[in-house]
């Protein structure tokens, strides 16, 4: 494992989705380390562990057992040492309500899970390579939902 | 608030009566004085006549003495001397009486003294006459002298008596004159005063009878209005009660008794009576509000139950107000409404509301299932299919390749169906914020959304000036997208699609079958195209969900687009209609209220 590899964490209860995600990262050939947690509870335990390394980008599914993505988001943003983690919502839902809520709660980007593997690769590439400091400073409602051209 | 009609005349009546009473008092005091004066004058007359009589008696006594003496002298018979002897006593008696009568008059007293002296002299002369006529001491000359002197003395006495009588008569005349003067002034005066008093009393009588008439009219009116009040109370299922705080007297209206399950006036209400009817659950609340009303002078509506004597429970709504009438006494006015029917209806409505809420919740969870749970396996099917690489496909048989592509097409169609269905349900469930916007602006957004297909079909869209309206922006934008998209989709293959969008203001009265008359003006926006059109017999069914006029192989679609249009227009309390001539074009008309 390289020292400057990006550390990516995906919280998703769906085994297939974790598989797609892992394969996509393997194919885009960017130095990354990808870890998985299976539900919201596990995610929070992982993040609160003082020995754990904090992820550079957290991909967060909304519909998870035990603790939903939205609950995790609120908790993370309330916790001092976690609130600067870049959070990408990664959900099947594209309802206005979910997008609005997570935007208000301080998520950085909203990704609707694509139904095409190549699109998934493109999205991951986009998210990983974007200059987050730049992106966050100009954060607004219009570019919150990731749309690929 | 006007409680009692104002009778201003009561004050003037009082003044009239006071004046009349004073006049009558004055008149009676005058009459009393007259009586007194008359009494006085008659006393004076009596006094004068008494003096006169006594003087005459005195005179006659002396004359009797004289006559007796004469008879004696002539006959020398002692019997003639009897009146002479008695006359002295008579004279003395009269004298004493006269002295008493004239005590208040010094002049008459003097005269009386003079008279007394003369009478004594006369009696001395009598003695002398008797002495000189006696044959023993007879002296003719001396007798003559004394007889003559007696004659003169007698005249003097007569003169003196006459003078005294004259003085009394003058005095009487003077007094009578004074009284006559006093009385002569009064009859006219007292008659006029009497007439004035009479006039006042008549005036008062007229005023009283007039007030009486007015009272009668007011009374009649009051009777009518209280009758109407009682009637409206029983029709409107409400009742009133009054509580006079000063006298602590409580009055229930007839309907109050009926609402409590009794005949009118079946009992005499006191302060605690009403609370006895209130259901135990609400007793405390009602008692508290009754106390509050005295402090706050007004009572907000209080809702509670009462129990009738037959144990029937009725629902009441009450209010009240503290009133102060013209006399300054405080009256608490209360109104009770029997709202049992409304209450039961309300409960039924609440029940229905709960059911609606429940089914709405179910609908929402269905939405969630559709948006999330149904999409998930579909997305995975699509993703897995997309993961079959070209290298994998190369080793597959032709038919297997064809199946895979069929799976792709079916999955895609299912995705469109789910997305459109969600869009349709969201037009109803998402929040509806109305913002005043120019429709031209929204139309431009719709055009830029459709830019690709417009470009592709080289369509010509002409837009006239559209109104500025309070709308839900994204929905109207969706409406425009769907209508223009529809025209572009069903354009004629060999002609350049032309879409004309126009707007005008119309009166709802001109479209009585379509528009509600309570909104006077509508904006009529028409979308006219030169597309392939449709059979006008379907002009209503095309707005129904999943209704399609073409096979999905010729024109892919879900049959939701126009249903969404209808829903959006409904959300804006408007109407949408369609008409068409096949192969010539269609017209979609949207009516939006001003």
CATH fold-level label of chain A: Rossmann fold
Question: Stretches of chain B where pLDDT falls below 50 for ≥5 residues?
Answer: 1-5
What integer is the average pLDDT of chain A? 83
CATH architecture of chain A: 3-Layer(aba) Sandwich
SSE pattern of chain B: HHHHEEHHHEEEHHHHEHHEEHEEHEE
Explained architecture:
The complex is a heterodimer of chains A (149) and B (594). Chain A is of the alpha/beta class and 149 residues long. Chain A has one domain (6-142): Response regulator (Rossmann fold). Chain A is 41% helix and 17% strand. In chain A, helix 1 (15-28) crosses helix 5 and helix 2 packs parallel to helix 3. Chain B has three domains: 9-207; 237-338, 2-Layer Sandwich (Beta-Lactamase), CATH 3.30.450.20; 432-593, Histidine kinase-like ATPase, C-terminal domain (Heat Shock Protein 90). Chain B is 62% helix and 15% strand. Chain B has a five-stranded antiparallel sheet with strand order 2-1-5-4-3, with helices on both faces. In chain B, helix 12 crosses helix 14 (473-489). The longest helix of chain B has 97 residues, at 140-236. Chain B is rod-shaped. The model of chain B is unreliable at 1-5 (pLDDT under 50). The chains are: A alpha/beta (149), B alpha+beta (594). The interface between A and B is medium-sized, with 18 and 16 residues.
